[in-house]
Amino acid sequence: MASGKTPRSMRSSKKADRFQSRVVASRNPKLVRGAEGSLTLTPSAFLKEMSLTSKQRLLRDMGEDSHQKFSAVDLDQRLFQPFPSEVVFENYIPHQFYIAQLALRNKDRVPHLLNVILENSPYFELISPSDEDYKVAPGMSSTFRILFRPDEIKDYFHRVIIITEREKFFVPIRAIGARAILDFPEQLNFSDCPVKFSTQKTLLVRNVGNREACYSITTLSPFSVDPSIGTLGIGEAMQVTVEFHPPKTGVYSSPMIVHYDTGEDVQKSLCGTAVNVNIKLDKSSLTVEKTYLTLSNQRFLVINNQSDITAHFQWRRFVDQEEEERQKLRLQRQEEDKLDDVPKEHRVVPRLQEHPSLPICTFQNQRTEVQGDSMPFSNDIFTIEPMEGDISPNSSLEINVIFKPKEARVYQETIYWDISGCETRLPLCISGEGVGPQVELSCDQLSIGKVFVGSTHSYGVLLLNRGVIETPFSVVYPESTLGSCFTFTPREGILLPFEHQVIWISVHATVLGQFTEQFRFSVKGAPEPLTLTVSGCVIGPAFHFNVSSLRFGEVSFGFPCTLCCRLTNTSLLPLNFNLRIPGDGSGAPSVTSFAQVSGSTGPSWRKRARGADKPTEFTIRPFKGTICSQGHLDIQVTLCSNTVKRYKLALVVDVDGVGKELLSLPVRARYHSTCAQPQARPAAFSCRE
Q1: Quick one: pLDDT at residue 55?
Q2: What is the largest CA-CA distance in the chain?
Q3: Whole-angstrom Cα distance, residue 207 to residue 234?
Q4: Residues 460, 462, 467: CA angle, nearest 5 degrees
Q5: Which CATH architecture fits 439-539?
Q6: What angle do CA 519, 520, 522 make, to 5 degrees?
Q7: Residue 102 DSSP label
Q8: First vs last C-alpha separation in the chain
């Protein structure tokens, strides 16, 4: 480092040097015997010779002039060691002279030539040794002086060029101008601090330098600095806050580096120790009493803060931050899988207003929420009040746990208490049992016995609410044919506490036979629906004929014969009937013998005889009608045979809405070919009971 002004003796010697000759006799003169002849060079040698610069040629000539062909210094090392390695001027005054010395020591075991050059500069000047001997003996040093005259206080840069027989290197010259200096302490120790809590220290920092400070400060987590960037005038002061927020217990240290705009970096040391403080819950598990659905119950617990800090707490869903990050990643992957299912033409939306219903928008919104969510505890069954807050030093806070079940079952949940001053999140196990509605039926089985088909019967059951909450209910019908024959009134409703509701059941059976149907009463909040089993037997109408058969005996061709019978309805319902004789012809009515003798139907009868459809030979009066409850009706059946055959048929009864051929009456007759000739009129038979 150079300082001070140039002495008078130096000034006088400098003036004297200006009048001395700059020509120095060579210490290794060459003997010139005469004019040297021209050399013959190869093309490559000529190209190399013509490509040399002046400095390269000088180095080559110095090597040729040197008689030392061997060196103890490795080729990758310098022959001369400069001291200092960098010439620095600082704390200088404009327009004053300052001198610095530069010594070059020969490290080899043989002498070497030395050439020192300083490029032209208005601020720097090189002063060589007085003897101006450029060949330095082994182990000896040659000292040069560098004169510096600044015009203003600013940074100056220059260099000295050192050329030896085999190398060329530089020694930089630097003049340091005005600098800002912020008087930070060398080390800042936070000692013992609560974990997951911000501890701050405020420093009063002054600019003791001679330049305005433009600075930026960097450090590593868990340390931070505020302000981290700014400017500070000469002699001014400011407050700098250093914060220590450790996430886990242990010893922390970090450098704090102050970066100046002039390029210098100043490093300070920060250190601190994170410890747990005395903050705890009064219990680790909590059980809420049995609670009816739609109602709520609550329990309390206490947080005791026996430390000297104001602790901030929050209830979280997961045990630590790492688990939260894993859950966020899982949710993001789920949203990406959903996005893959979106058609490609919907993935790029030019104008969001034109496609408000595209699912891509929903996926992006959900992804944004997941990325920004701190994942606090959230549950529809258990509610914590307050969810987060602050606890003053040496005080307590009461926490309210509210239980509101939605189903009749046992609920268990583990939540985690995250608070400043405690490294790990403390678990809290909460449980509670939901009690469903106390609803029951007066009977769970109903037997209606035998009922007539088509009849309507009504029955009643009681739906009882023995609980303290209102209970909505509804009837669920079975998906069967017979299930549609039942009607419940009311089909749905609300049961008040300790009240009952009469449920009327109307049955209108349309299907014959035994049945068993289960009807379910869906009660909101009950784990299982109530079941009512209805059983019985649907029977058809009761009716009969007063005779076992209709026997016409031997009948003659074309002679009508009439028999009577009575149909009696013994049921309690009207009987809508239809009578028919399967197997009877479907053609025109048969022709009597009187009509054949008179000849009025001869041609038409012959045509019918040749036709494909057989004649209708039986006539039933009445063939349909209604018989009132427990009533009867006389039926006439007339046979006019036009066919030579034996009749074995039956008179069948079809009942509307019930079925066909529910009752049959045998009909017997045979054709008698030797009967007498037909009379003028057909015989009439009386109808008897």
Answers
A1: 53
A2: 190
A3: 6
A4: 170
A5: Sandwich (2.60)
A6: 155
A7: E
A8: 155
Contact 100, 158 (CB under 8 A): no
Whether 391 and 399 have beta carbons less than 8 Å apart is answered as: no
Q: What is 543-671's CATH superfamily?
A: Immunoglobulins (2.60.40.10)
Say which CATH topology domain 284-343+366-435 has: Immunoglobulin-like (2.60.40)
The amino acid at 540: G
Residue type, 173: I
For 191-237, write each residue's pLDDT tens digit: 899 999 999 999 999 999 888 999 999 999 999 999 999 999 999 99
Cβ-based neighbours of 252, under 8 Å, separated by 6 or more: 222, 223, 244, 246, 271, 272, 273, 274
Assign 263 to helix, strand or coil: coil
Are 205 and 240 a contacting pair, CB within 8 Å? yes
Residue 42 has pLDDT above 90, yes or no: no
Q: Is the peptide bond before 490 cis (omega within 30 degrees of 0)?
A: yes
Identity of residue 425: R
Residues 234/212, Cβ–Cβ less than 8 Å: yes
CA atoms lying within 13 Å on the CB side of residue 112:
32
Multiple choice CATH, 49-176, 3.40.50.200, 2.60.40.10, 3.40.50.620, 2.70.98.10: 2.60.40.10
How big, in percent rounded to 5, are the helix, strand and coil portions of the chain?
A: 15, 45, 40
The answer to whether the beta carbons of residues 539 and 480 sit under 8 Å apart is: no
Runs of H (alpha helix) within 485-621: 593-598, 602-610
- Return d(Cα 276, Cα 309) in angstroms, integer: 12
The reported pLDDT for the residue numbered 584 is 84
Whole-angstrom distance, CA of residue 240 vs CA of residue 225: 7
CB 338 within 8 A of CB 358: no
Specify the DSSP element, H or E, that contains 46.
helix 43-50
DSSP per-residue string spanning 104-165: EEE-SSS-EE-EEEE---SSEEEE--TT---EE-TT-EEEEEEEE--SSSS-EEEEEEEE-S
Helix or strand or coil: residue 493?
Answer: strand
CA 115 to chain centre: 75
Judged against a pLDDT cut of 50, whether residue 8 lies above it is answered with no
Q: Which residues pair with 554 in a beta bridge?
A: 670
- Side chain identity at residue 74, one-letter code: D
| Nearest Cα to Cα of residue 277 among 311, 251, 301 | 311
Where in the chain is CATH 2.60.40.10?
49-176, 187-275, 284-343+366-435, 439-539, 543-671
- Asked which of 294-298, 382-386, 565-569, 586-590 is least confident by mean pLDDT, the reply is 586-590
**CA gap 573, 656 in Å, rounded:** 12
pLDDT in tens, 575-592: 888 999 898 888 888 888
Residue 360 DSSP symbol: H
Fold assignment, 187-275 = Immunoglobulin-like (2.60.40)
